[in-house]
């Protein structure tokens, strides 16, 4: 009984009735065509003429289903009323030829089954009610049927209510079967095509790339700021009583670093909230300011004009240097750092070295991802990067082709 009259069965019956309503304009067009061939008669005069009109109407429905925007409308109805898994159906208009043909097949089947079930739903219930109440009103058979019909005998009148109930059950069974057929075919005809799956995969890849970029920006910006602040605060604590001027400079550097990092953090969080605007990331032209605030003695040499570096390469190079300084703070203590930036032969070369202090490095819980991020940035631009001990120094080197910005 639940399969015939449950909530899902009722929703699917409504879905079929909507299909019958959608069939009516095509049926009227078919009646005009049939009437022009056989004038003087209506498509509703006889069942054969109505059946011919029904068949003539279906090709017009099939043509309507080829419109790309038809698929999202049909998917909405199938998700809401047919009990189909939403993930099994496609989103967006049907772009490819295969998707449009499958959508047209679904629409044609929907209006065909809906037209048949709508006609049955209009015709059978009044007749079944007549059969159910016939034993209580025997005189009804004389007003509707001839006295020589099957309802003229006592057995015919006695069996009429059972026949009426059987007809209602048959109508419910036909509706449930048609609804189940549409639900089974929905993923096949309204499901994503190979082109849709490819577009969805590309969209997921693009979103993942954005998430990875935001993760790298947060790691490099916030990680560097915390390392610099930790070093400045530690040095200021050690000389708090003996060198107040140094403490004042360290506090000023901490203030500037945190203010800049909060601005970058707001920019990244704005993108996570899907606000408009682009990620405001510093580039090589801001490198000297970064070196002055880091709290390390940096011997910086530059060959070439950083303003001529493409924007994307310049931003990624800035982040690589920033992460290298963070590693120097964690692993080299206050040892001086040597940084060389050179532009030559369509390539940007970065080399950073700092002596190994021999002390245990500052290890963060869970380990760091900075070196992996540096390698990812370089590879995405078509270059390469390496980092590791070289004798008594730690060397970070990266080569970024300027054409990687394309």
From TrEMBL:
The reply on keyword Transmembrane helix is yes
Where exactly are the transmembrane stretches of this chain? 12-38, 50-70, 105-134, 154-183
Write down the EC number.
Answer: 2.7.13.3
> Can you give the residue ranges of the Signal transduction histidine kinase subgroup 3 dimerisation and phosphoacceptor domain?
211-275
Superkingdom, taxonomy of origin: Bacteria
Gene Ontology molecular function: any one = kinase activity
Q: Which InterPro entries match?
A: HATPase_C_sf, Sensor_HK_TwoCompSys, Sig_transdc_His_kin_sub3_dim/P
- Reactions it catalyzes: ATP + protein L-histidine = ADP + protein N-phospho-L-histidine
Q: Name one Pfam family in it.
A: HisKA_3
Ordered alphabetically, the record's keywords are:
ATP-binding, Kinase, Membrane, Nucleotide-binding, Phosphoprotein, Transferase, Transmembrane, Transmembrane helix, Two-component regulatory system
Q: Which PANTHER family match?
A: NITRATE/NITRITE SENSOR PROTEIN NARX-RELATED, NITRATE_NITRITE SENSOR PROTEIN NARQ
Give the protein name, as stated in the record.
histidine kinase
Q: Which organism is it from?
A: Streptomyces violascens
């Amino acid at each position: 009984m639940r399969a015939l009259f449950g909530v899902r069965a009722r929703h699917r019956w409504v879905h079929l009735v909507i299909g019958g309503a959608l069939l009516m304009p095509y049926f009227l067009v078919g009646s005009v065509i049939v009437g022009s061939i056989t004038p003087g008669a209506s498509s509703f005069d006889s069942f054969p003429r109505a059946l011919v009109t029904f068949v003539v109407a279906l090709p017009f429905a099939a043509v309507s289903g080829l419109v790309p925007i038809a698929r999202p409308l049909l998917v909405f109805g199938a998700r809401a009323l047919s009990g189909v898994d939403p993930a099994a159906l496609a989103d967006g208009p049907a772009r490819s030829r295969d998707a449009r043909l499958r959508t047209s097949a679904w629409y044609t089947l929907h209006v065909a089954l809906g037209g048949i079930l709508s006609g049955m739903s209009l015709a059978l219930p009044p007749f079944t009610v007549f059969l159910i109440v016939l034993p209580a009103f025997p005189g009804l058979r004389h007003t509707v049927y001839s006295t020589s019909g099957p309802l003229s005998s006592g057995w015919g009148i006695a069996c009429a209510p059972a026949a009426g109930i059987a007809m209602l059950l048959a109508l419910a069974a036909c509706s449930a079967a048609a609804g189940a057929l549409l639900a089974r075919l929905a993923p096949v005809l309204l499901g994503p095509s190979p082109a849709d799956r490819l577009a969805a995969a590309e969209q997921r890849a693009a979103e993942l790339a954005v998430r990875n970029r935001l993760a790298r920006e947060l790691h490099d910006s916030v990680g560097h700021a915390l390392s610099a602040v930790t070093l400045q605060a530690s040095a200021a604590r050690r000389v708090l009583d003996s060198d107040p001027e140094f403490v004042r400079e360290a506090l000023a550097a901490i203030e500037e670093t945190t203010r800049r990092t909060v601005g970058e953090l707001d920019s990244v969080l704005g993108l996570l909230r899907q606000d408009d605007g682009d990620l405001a990331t510093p580039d090589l032209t801001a490198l000297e300011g970064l070196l002055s605030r880091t709290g390390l003695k940096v011997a910086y040499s530059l060959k070439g004009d950083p303003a001529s570096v493409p924007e994307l390469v310049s931003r990624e190079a800035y982040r690589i240097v920033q992460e290298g300084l963070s590693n120097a703070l964690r692993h080299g203590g206050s040892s001086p750092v040597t940084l060389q930036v050179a532009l030559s032969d369509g390539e940007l070369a970065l080399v950073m070295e700092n002596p190994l202090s021999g002390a245990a490095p500052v290890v963060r819980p869970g380990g760091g991802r900075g070196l992996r991020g540096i390698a990812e940035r370089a590879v995405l631009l078509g270059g390469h990067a390496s980092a590791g001990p070289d004798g008594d120094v730690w060397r970070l080197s990266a080569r970024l082709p300027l054409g990687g910005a394309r």
